[in-house]
Amino acid sequence: MIAFQQKILNLIKCFRRQWHLFSNSERTTVCGADCMMMALQLSMAEVNKQHRGDFTVSLSDVLENWKYLLHDKLGLSYENMKEPENYADVKQAYHAFLVRSSMLDLVDIYQKSSGLELISEDESIAPVQLLEFISGIMNEQQTNDFVLSAPGTPVKQQGQENVKVRILAKKCVCSYLSLLVNSKDDLALAQILNVPDRGLGREAFTKLKHASQARKMSIFLMATSFIRTVELGGRGCASSLFDPLKIHIKGFSDLVNFIDKLQEIVGEILNPRVAGGRILSTVKMHLIKGRSNGDPFCQAVEEVVEYLDLKIKNISDSQHEVSTASTTGVSPAR
């Protein structure tokens, strides 16, 4: 299993090295298994809104579409599976979502790599293996969710809660990094919109999403446009399109200005090793601000940041040419 996971990692590394063969934008990011399912769920909600008038999506419908979508994209037989209702619309909405978010999912990267013969025979992956890998991640997450909600002894419950907190901390830190690289990544934005607490709940996200769809831009760029309009002309200058967002000015402003702060670090510090460390430190302080030192979330953030900082150091040490390239006109995303 570990050897196969290494093949998946090598596949992603291939994409990062040869990004220009996969996408027109070097800021394209990878949509992993968990994000694939989230993107599918959001796509199904959009389709249900069109057909039924509401965004409600049942878990059973998501799992049915998920299984069918994976078999369809991988070209595997699904003769014994019934095509889900409105599947063609869901599939179209799913791929449109990835395009808007400047993302490629694991199956797209796998198929593109195979078509271009970028992977050696020793590193090759069979479609059914990729299906098992992606489905395995999904099943593991479902099991974790079940365990976390099941009754148990206080010691077990505490351990399960710690796992849940670590997963949340990793998602938050990585989502800030993803949004910094790819401002169109709506999934990353959804993860950190209200982390730390900015008073931006589901209602604020829904309003922002509707406004972004009306303007045909990403959710984060919509928030940025709104805040820039307010900053330049004051609260009263925003058009009627912005009216639903006005009560959330403070929360959106906090988010946009913080991402601006991270972007300034990228622009000011050319050494990727130093810039990466500074960004991680800034994100860490932002996430744990106002929390006590003994807070499990604070401890989890500390561990995640330490781990990612070490990864950046190892990459920097093993690829000395990166430091040279960063001074020759290569963009911060590279």
Automatic annotation (TrEMBL):
Similarity section: Belongs to the PARI family.
Question: In its UniProt entry, what is this protein called?
Answer: PCNA-interacting partner
Keyword list (alphabetical) reads: Cytoplasm, DNA damage, DNA repair, DNA-binding, Nucleus
GO MF annotation list: DNA binding
Organism encoding this protein: Oreotrochilus melanogaster
GO cellular component assignments: chromatin; cytoplasm; nucleus
Q: Give the matching InterPro entries.
A: P-loop_NTPase, PARPBP
Keyword Transport belongs to the record: no
Keyword presence, Lipoprotein: no
From the UniProt record, give one GO term of the biological process aspect.
negative regulation of double-strand break repair via homologous recombination
List the PANTHER family hit by this protein, alphabetically: PCNA-INTERACTING PARTNER
Q: Where in the cell is it found?
A: Cytoplasm; Nucleus
